[in-house]
Automatic annotation (TrEMBL):
Binding site for (3S)-3-hydroxy-3-methylglutaryl-CoA: 29, 143, 242, 276
Residue span, Hydroxymethylglutaryl-coenzyme A synthase C-terminal domain: 177-260, 265-384
One protein family per Pfam: HMG_CoA_synt_C
Binding site for substrate: 148
Molecular function, one GO term: hydroxymethylglutaryl-CoA synthase activity
Record domain Hydroxymethylglutaryl-coenzyme A synthase N-terminal: where: 2-164
Protein name: 3-hydroxy-3-methylglutaryl-CoA synthase
Chain's gene name: pksG
Length: 389
């Protein structure tokens, strides 16, 4: 009996800023953003969308009434925690109406945490054939206005139902993790924005990928020829491409190089229009691959997960026959295509309101066409959520 991803969905706020216009406002050559880091648009989070509401919005369309009875664990992976004690999974569990006898926890290791959450879910379900685990990756990537990291911001969430006999991706028992203590990106308690060593961060990412891939290939006697496609953690689309290119050496045949390069472009299409969503970036890339690329049953997909600080992991999954039937491709396209572009000036206003927890429902919700959860207010440090029908 196999375990894997039975359902997968994502949510992004309905506002975005055009990267070319942001570049112009920052007096930067637009190609530095469009080509240099490979980003076209960047999701912008209003104050009314935090990790709880985004996570619940990503999950609500894939959690059925039967699922609510079978889910025995909810795990939220995030590095945008809103509380140092209470897990956001508890609040999402409540919003979704999941049965009360379920474990709810939050996990942290920079952008990596969704991957150990999935591995934990897989191991947990091994002896529980009638149960399911809901894994959610939800984050708002923020570096500060006019900072070096500003063009690699974003916001969004990915929800995954992990179960037996999955309809999308069967997870293989082959994960290899690599840990190295490095200060490439970190956010001390109380700091509103992370501290980043940009050059070191890129080097640490590629080093982690090479180490985990090489050990994976050694342990399991695998080569790149064994994979239909590879997915990467994508803080920006050129980052994963640099990692991929680092192993497409001269001894790799041209067909494999072409296949993996084409697959990478498909796997980063959605990310190009969303930006960095930290823990969810790898899994948004997986959705993009599944929905924009030609795959056949039993194709093996390699996945590289990375979290600064740092932990990397390479693992794989096998595409399930009929996987397209479990995807809502049109809904995902509509979600991206029906967003509202805001000016750089408005984006800056949104950014400051988010930092100061200033709510403006008239602006943020007036043109919302979807039924969504949203953060309505904060009173005495208690967050109050509501539903827009």
């Amino acid at each position: 009996m196999t375990v894997g991803i039975d359902q997968i969905n994502f949510y992004v706020p309905r506002f975005y800023v055009d990267m070319a216009k942001l570049a112009e406002a920052r007096q930067v050559d637009p190609n530095k953003y469009l080509l240099g880091i490979g980003q076209t648009e960047m999701a912008v989070s209003p104050t009314s969308q935090d990790i709880v509401s985004m996570g619940a919005n990503a999950a609500k369309d894939i959690v059925t009434d039967d699922d609510k009875k079978q889910i025995s664990m909810v795990i939220v992976a995030t590095e945008s925690a809103i509380d140092s004690a209470k897990a956001s999974a508890v609040q999402i569990h409540n919003l979704l109406g999941i049965q009360p006898f379920a474990r709810c926890i939050e996990m942290k290791e920079a952008c990596y945490a969704a991957t150990p959450a999935i591995q934990l879910a897989k191991d947990y379900l091994a002896q529980r054939p009638n149960e399911k685990v809901l894994v959610i990756a939800s984050d708002t990537a923020r570096y500060g206005l006019q900072s070096g990291g500003e063009p690699t911001q974003g916001a969004g969430a990915v929800a995954m139902m992990i179960s037996h006999n999955p309809r999308i991706l069967e997870l293989n028992d082959d994960a290899v993790a690599f840990t190295e203590d490095v200060y490439d990106f970190w956010r001390p308690s109380g700091q509103p924005y992370p501290l980043v060593d940009g050059a070191l961060s890129k080097d640490a990412y590629i080093h982690s990928f090479q180490e985990s891939w090489q050990e994976y290939a050694r342990r399991h006697n695998k080569s790149l020829a064994d994979f239909s496609s590879l997915c990467f953690h994508v803080p920006f689309t050129k980052m994963g491409k640099k990692a991929l290119e680092s192993i497409l050496t001269d001894d790799i045949d041209e067909e494999t190089k072409s296949r993996l390069t084409t697959g990478y472009d498909a796997a980063t299409y959605y990310n190009r229009y969303v930006g960095n969503i930290y823990t969810g970036s790898l899994y948004l890339s997986l959705i993009s691959l599944l929905e924009t690329h030609d795959l056949v049953p039993n194709d093996t997909i390699g996945l590289f997960s990375y979290g600064s600080g740092s932990v990397g992991e390479f693992f794989s999954g096998k595409v399930v026959e009929g996987y397209q039937d479990a995807l809502d491709i049109q809904a995902h396209k509509d979600l991206l295509n029906n967003r509202e572009e805001i000016s750089v000036e408005t984006y800056e206003t949104f950014f400051k309101r988010f930092d100061n927890l200033e709510f403006d429902p008239e602006t943020e919700l007036q043109n919302e066409q979807n039924s969504i959860f949203y953060l309505e207010s904060i009173n005495d440090h208690i967050r109050n959520y509501n539903t827009l029908n």
